[in-house]
Structure formats: structure tokens, C-alpha cells
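Backbone-to-sequence.
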């Protein structure tokens, strides 16, 4: 689930803040997988958040990484679902649905999403990108994932 994508050519439209929120109680492997998948999706939606290739002292190149910090927070599952709602202007929400983890193909994921009412989609996690003030107002009280 996502909101409209900001115009990447306009620096004013780039997200100032990016957070990932995972559901409490996930085992470490599921939490890590959730974060990885959400980071990939956010990177695709906001490619300007990825810095350029860098070179070390031995002239070896290293791929660019996020130009903004990415705190990983935790919240009860119902709060994660509420954060995944796509109706916040200026905030991009990318959710990782629980059933997606059991889909063997993307086509299976598409079919599962199409068959699931929005209110019934449970989430392992959500990434939020947008203006710092808005993202903080949604997630500022959440603790870091241990």
C-alpha cells in the first residue's frame, strides 16, 4: 500500500525522514526479512534517497547507501496496520503484508492481495517516508526494535 510518489526531480519533494516499523513479536529472521523487503521497495520508490557510489582509499568502489538514517521501530500489529494506510498526503507508506511471506511468486502475492479486503490485510511491517514533522507525529512515540 502506498500513497502517490513524490516528484524525484524536485529536491523539495524528497522525503526528509524514513522509518521502518515492524510488528512486535516477530522472530529475528522475519523482522530482518521484513526490513530488507521494505527497504528495497522504498529505494525503488525514492531512488534519490540512495547516495552515489563511493571510493575507498584503495580506489575500490562501493555502492551508495541511504542518504538518510533509517531507524527501525516496533509497534503492536494493529498500530502497524494503521500506519500502513495510504491516505496521508505527502507520506509514502509501503506495507509488507503477512500473507506475502507465504507467497511463492509475485503473481501469487497479486492474487492474494486482490482477494483480501483492505481491512483484513495484516502487516509484518511498514516503511514511512515523508516530511520529518509528519513522520515524527506518526512514529515519534514508538520504541526502537531491540
Amino acid at each position: 500500500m502506498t500513497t502517490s510518489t513524490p516528484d524525484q526531480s524536485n529536491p523539495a519533494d524528497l522525503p526528509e525522514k524514513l522509518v521502518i516499523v515492524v510488528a512486535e513479536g516477530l522472530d529475528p529472521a522475519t523482522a530482518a526479512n521484513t526490513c530488507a523487503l521494505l527497504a528495497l521497495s522504498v529505494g525503488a520508490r525514492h531512488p534519490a534517497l540512495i547516495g552515489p557510489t563511493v571510493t575507498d582509499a584503495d580506489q575500490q568502489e562501493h555502492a551508495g547507501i541511504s542518504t538518510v538514517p533509517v531507524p527501525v521501530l516496533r509497534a503492536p500489529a494493529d498500530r502497524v496496520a494503521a500506519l500502513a494506510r495510504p491516505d496521508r498526503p505527502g507520506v509514502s507508506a509501503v506495507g509488507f503484508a503477512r500473507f506475502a511471506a507465504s507467497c511463492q511468486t509475485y503473481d501469487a502475492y497479486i492474487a492474494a492481495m486482490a482477494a483480501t479486503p483492505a481491512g483484513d490485510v495484516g502487516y509484518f511491517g511498514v516503511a514511512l517516508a515523508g516530511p520529518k514533522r509528519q513522520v515524527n507525529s506518526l512514529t515519534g512515540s514508538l520504541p526502537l526494535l531491540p
